[in-house]
């Protein structure tokens, strides 16, 4: 009975909204139909807005950039300077001197990226990565002689990047000279259209899109599939993604990479040469101390010179023939050689 | 009279459900028609809107039902829902005697649990995991039928079907104890419609003058919504039982001329609701990071052709079982664990049960949320070259294959391979046979470039237990990262 009374009490209040003929007031009409009408309108709006949209999990179409051409047309083409016998730092200095120094390639205030081979968890004497002293010296020269605004050392390593940077000595050497060291875990990527018939759009380490000059710093190594891994194959370290399927078309891929990445300079590290078991190496008896550095603007010549240190001629490396035939440079390094 | 109309409507709606379910297996019935009931479900629309920011195909129809609920109350629960009708039937068949019914149909505060269930499911959907289908009555019932009923007349038992069937049986058993307990206390769709029903101008209204307090309405009430006291509009199923049994004609359905509009507040505290939402929002990413979420997919799970890539697929699949019912060779089964917790009950292809028929695109036709896209049959057929749509790659097991390991001829896989040129090629070799005499054998080799992963080879391989040629998801076209072959970019 209490419930009925309660309901009755409420009804008395509501009756105020009716006139003496029992017609319902406008206010009550609004309260009756308003919420439902509003909800219907909101639902209709949502339906119109969302009907058959592709959905938020649709992969975002990132605009692909084309990589800049980092070459300088004026400085020292047609020459490969080879320095020997004084250790990587002094060899580098003498080889660069043959071109008039690093400032022939890098102007004050420019941002420089060094791309070494820094992919393997190995110590410097195992010759799987570029020599840290070479990298340290080059960074120092970029700042001290060329007046670069910033130097980045970047690679997408195969082994754990922090371990690689530490055990190869490259992390410490580069940082001590003032460079910023990045790897695939510490920097983002950009989508780059690499333009080949096999290579399409790939994710590339972000610094490549943010610098003015790029210097390729490969080490001379045997490679179980490619026979030799030198400067052209070094560009795989710029890519981020499903690289492990590239081996199925390796020669063409490496040649197309050389066409997509046009560095200012190639500095080939032959301080120690890994003659077998590459690209990872390990055993010290596979390492041959050669103590040479070559500097050139011609990536094909650099490749051919490095291959000669492994006892391989240009005809034995299919990607070299392909690159030369696409006009990327000259295989006959002997005619271009300058002893520094 | 209105009550008889409601009974007729319930029966008709259930028959329609049964017919449409049977229609799923009928290849000529339009896919949209077969999955119409899923499209009418407002939670399908809401779930996909939250999880993937879209209302694909015909799911907008659910908004019509939602709007109608905001006008008429939870008529869907009382008049249309096939699971509700089933429960109603069970409770009628097994109901207690009249005196106990009053207690059975009394409102209880823990009926508000369904609002928390809804909150959990919607929060998870907002984070990209559409699991509304686990408890939404329409997908639940259809899934139980697809995995429990259909195997009775087609292709034998589905190993992972027991979970869906068990869930249905538990719900029906509960209804025998307390009528429509699932609808009152658990159903997320009921909760959503209940929230909308609070806005409805048309509702049960009681005339306080003529009421004689006989409690007949309370005994007959299906929704346990206190027709005698302050009527809980959000619980009322609009079954109109009360209007039929009231001897004084004191209860009717219509505009409340002289009655209060405000229904009692829901029995869900604000703090409890907030805690539920926050803990769901915290648990979902933790699940994903620790192997429960959609990143945990074992790479042996093969999805139907036309399935979106995994995050998008899991944001749209409402586990309604339509594709499982519709697949003519019966190749699809609900997954139990291999695609993580968030993949529970989603469809995976088991080649040993059935293969993906090359010219069939039925799963994509019946999927209500386009979690499986509708394809052109030519896209998946690999006639004259590789197929644009692949679901995986077959791998030969040289240790089990008859010509490779047992020096016996076979070639069933090559014979069955539907691609042209065939993805399985035979190499003629001469080997010592089992008795030492030389035999000439044809050994199969698989070309992964041409293989579509259809599974016909695995399905027909005579080696039992584990077939000597097995499909895994490597090479599926929906996920470019899941590849072993280098595939050049399209258009070069």
Structure overview:
The complex is a heterodimer of chains A (340) and B (492). Chain A contains nine helices and 13 strands. Chain A is α/β, with parallel strands linked by helices. In chain A, helix 4 packs parallel to helix 6 (170-176) and helix 7 (250-260) packs parallel to helix 9 (318-325). The termini of chain A are far apart. Classes of the chains: A alpha/beta (340), B mainly alpha (492). Chains A and B meet through helix 1 and helix 2 of A and helix 4, helix 5 and helix 17 of B.
Relative strand content of chain A: 15-25%
Given the structure, what is the number of helices of chain B? 22
Query: What profile does the largest beta sheet of chain B have?
Result: 2 strands, antiparallel
Main beta-sheet strand count, sense and barrel state of chain A = 10 strands, mixed
Shape of chain A: elongated
Determine the N-to-C terminus distance of chain A: 112 Å
What level of helicity do the residues of chain A show?
A: 25-40%
Mean pLDDT of chain A: 89
Oligomeric status of the shown chains? Answer: heterodimer
SSE topology string of chain A: HHEHEHEHHEEEEEEEHEEHHE
Low confidence ranges of chain B: none
Would you summarize the structure shown here?
The complex is a heterodimer of chains A (340) and B (492). Chain A has 340 residues and is of the alpha/beta class. Chain A has helices spanning 2-15, 26-50, 87-97, 132-144, 161-167, 170-176, 250-260, 299-309, 318-325; strands spanning 80-84, 111-116, 150-154, 180-182, 189-193, 201-205, 213-217, 219-223, 227-229, 239-240, 265-274, 287-296, 337-339.
